[in-house]
Each structure stands twice: as C-alpha cells, then as structure tokens.
Design brief:
It contains eleven helices and 14 strands. The protein is of the alpha/beta class and about 290 residues long. Strand 1 and strand 2 form a beta hairpin. Keywords: DNA-binding, Transcription, Transcription regulation. Pfam families: HTH_1, LysR_substrate.
Length: about 290
C-alpha cells in the first residue's frame, strides 16, 4: 500500500507547480520532496511529472492520479472540518426515539432548551412504541430513547428516570351507556374500554396492575398510539385511558370529561434509555445531561 504522505506530497507539487513550492508549503527540504515523488513513481511504475523551465507539469498518468487524489484530500478536509464542528457543537444531529406519553411538556421544554443553546444541532425525533424505540436504540438507529417503562425491566440498557406522569380515565359526552360519577377498578372494567394494543409496554403494565386485584384487563378497542384514543372517546365508543396532560390539552372543545375513580391510577415513570457501554456523540451526551437535570 502506497503511503498517504506520498499522495499528499504529489498533491502539493501539482498544486504549486514545482518541487520548491511544495517544499516551502509542507516545510520540507526540496530533496525530500524529490525523493518522495521518485518513490511514488516507482510504486506506480510510471512518470507523474515532466520537468520544465517553469517547474513541473503533470503527465497523462499524473492528471488521472490528480483527479482522484484531489477529490480524496478535499473529502478528508471536509471530514476534518465536520469533526471539529461537531466537537464545537456547531454541526451535527441527535436521533431520539420517543413514545407518545414520554413526550410531555416537561420533556418538550428540555428539548427546546437544548435547541436554544445549540441551534446548529438538529434533533431527529421519531414517534414509536416502547418496543419499537428500544429496537431502534439497539440497532443503532437512534442514540437516545425516551420511553415509559419500569427501571428494572431492561438490564442490558442504561435506564434513568427523567420525569413521571399520571394517566386518567376519560369518557366522551356522546357516550350512550349509563355511567356512575365514581367507580372502582372492577366497575371500570364493566364498560367498553379503549387503550393501546396488546403488543405495547403500557398494555402489559395495566395487565399486571389489574391482575394483582384478580381482574382481567382486556380493552374492547385496541389502537396503535395514544393519539388515536381521543377521537374514539369523543365519538362515544367507550372509555379511554390517556395521560392527564393529554386529557387537558385535547378537551378544549368540552367533548370529554375525566371519570372519577375511587383510587387514582398509579404514577408512571418516563425513562431515558441508552445502550450500556456505548459511547455517545458529544451532542447526544449534552442532550442527555439536559434531560437528566
């Protein structure tokens, strides 16, 4: 393999048009420049330069080599500048996977805080279920994942609590069945229920929660994301479980109301997940620290 230094010297000789010019630019002696070019010509078994009264001119072979070497050096220079910009937080992006419930107002405010401090760092936020977010994290598609899960569940990952939220039961104004103002857990399951599908982390959470009370959590309508629960509730299809923040935000038209339970649903954790023993980019590390503070 030909030394890259030879190509760098070749590039500089071609750029300056002389061995002396290359020697001055690279802070080398002219004999060293001449020797390097001679070695490169021996390696490639062809002449690269013709000596003239004005300096040197490239041969046909030299012209072909110049086209490729100049592109390579230009790309390397661009790469170096990008790396320096990344270290200065003036270039780059952070890819994050988020579940619907994890992207609450507190988290959004922290993301906005990061953007204000580092406006040249782009955020790429994908909406996922917890399982999809963790799969994207483990596959290297994202650097960070904001999910709703138990801190002890995935031991192969670094999980840190960043916030919490509470879910409430909502009912639409158009719900046709009779509804008591206050109900208990067993009474709640007597009504048609709308929630996330059985593949979701949250479904499993409530399945276990109700099982501890010898009750079977089995929604009548399952959806892929929490944002799809609200239209079904407003249409009178059943009761829905959504975050308290979403319930307030989505009820500006007054078409829903919160159902009073004898006991509130338990608070749930919003967790930041990263892959254990995997280095993060400086931008991702900085965002992680903002999310955790």
């Amino acid at each position: 393999m030909v030394s890259f230094d030879y190509y760098k010297i070749f590039y500089t000789v071609a750029l300056t048009g002389s061995f002396s010019g290359a020697a001055a630019k690279l802070n080398h002696s002219q004999p060293n420049i001449s020797r390097a070019i001679a070695n490169l010509e021996n390696e490639l078994n062809c002449a690269l330069f013709l000596r003239t009264n004005k300096g040197v001119e490239m041969t046909a072979e030299g012209q072909v080599l110049w086209e490729h070497v100049s592109r390579a050096i230009s790309e390397l220079s661009l790469a170096e500048n990008k790396v320096i910009s990344m270290r200065n937080m003036s270039y780059g992006s952070v890819r994050i996977a988020c579940t619907d419930n994890a992207l609450n107002r507190e988290i959004v405010n922290k993301l906005c805080c990061f953007r204000k401090k580092f406006p040249k760092i782009n955020l790429r936020i994908s909406s996922n279920t917890t399982k999809q977010a963790l799969a994207a994290l483990l596959d290297g598609e994202v650097e960070l994942a904001l999910i709703t899960t138990e801190l002890t569940k995935y031991r192969s990952l670094n999980l840190t609590k960043v916030s919490e939220y509470r879910e409430v039961v909502v009912i639409g104004r158009n719900f046709g069945g009779e509804m008591h103002e206050t109900t208990d857990w067993k009474g709640l399951l007597d009504y048609p229920l709308i929630y996330l599908d059985s593949e979701s982390e949250s479904y499993g959470y409530y399945k276990d929660f109700f099982k501890k009370m010898n009750l079977d959590f089995r929604p009548n309508i399952e959806v892929a994301s929490t944002s799809r629960i609200v239209p079904l509730v407003k249409a009178g299809c059943g009761l829905g479980i959504i975050s308290a923040e979403m319930a307030t935000k989505e009820n500006a038209d007054g078409e829903m109301r919160k159902l009073t339970l004898q006991s509130e649903l338990p608070r749930r954790d919003i967790v930041l997940a990263t892959v254990a023993n995997k280095n993060l980019s400086l931008a991702a590390t900085t965002l992680k620290n903002i999310l955790l503070n």
